[in-house]
Amino acid sequence: MDKSHDIKVFNTLIATTLDSVKGYREAAEESRDTTHARFFGEMAEERSRVAADLQQQVRSLGGDPETDSSTAGAVHRGWVDLKSAITGRDEKAIVNEVERGEDYIKAKFETAMQDDELSAGSRGALEACFASIRKGHDRASQMKHAAV
Q: Is the confidence at residue 76, as pLDDT, over 90?
């Protein structure tokens, strides 16, 4: 069985997840709200674990896992506006951009879960990672709605 499709899907998710880690680390460093900063730090760690799990899956498929964020070299547009929110030190804008980034990563994982070409074994490994992504998305959404 050709595993190249599964490896490609996982590597795309790894890059997106590493973007998320970067975004959360920046948000944690710049947030003035200690509750938000703690949450952002926890999410950076959780996303690091998800990326490591995805990388392990690529290795188990015989591939070379992505080790960098978006291959274009820049943080993906899902997290790009976070930089301007941080620069302005606008806490509400930071929370809004984090949630927007969460919407983006959740959509990427949903697309992968619906991929008919993904093998059953890979889909099973992806489900655990997606559960973590969904949980993080829901927490960020709750934070946004609490901040309004």
A: no
The single residue listed with the structure tokens 């290795």 is: 59
Q: Name the phi and psi angles at 47, rounded to 5.
A: -70, -30
Task: Name residues whose C-beta falls within 8 Å of residue 112's C-beta, 6 or more positions apart in sequence.
Answer: 9, 12, 13, 118, 126, 130
- Domains of the chain in start order, with CATH, are 4-147 (1.20.1260.10)
The Cα-based distances of 64 to 37, 56, 69, 81, 83 in angstroms read 33, 10, 14, 30, 30
Q: What is the pLDDT of residue 73?
A: 42
Q: What is the pLDDT of residues 3-30, one digit of tens each?
A: 999 999 999 999 999 989 988 998 898 8
Contact call for residues 11 and 63 (beta carbons, < 8 A):
yes
Q: How many CB atoms lie within 10 A of CB 15?
A: 21
Residues 6+ positions from 2 with CB-CB distance below 8 Å: none
Q: What is the mean pLDDT of the chain?
A: 85
Across 61-72, b (16+ Cβ under 10 Å) vs e yields bebebbeebbee
Burial of residue 144 (CB within 10 Å: 0-12, 13-18, 19+) is middle
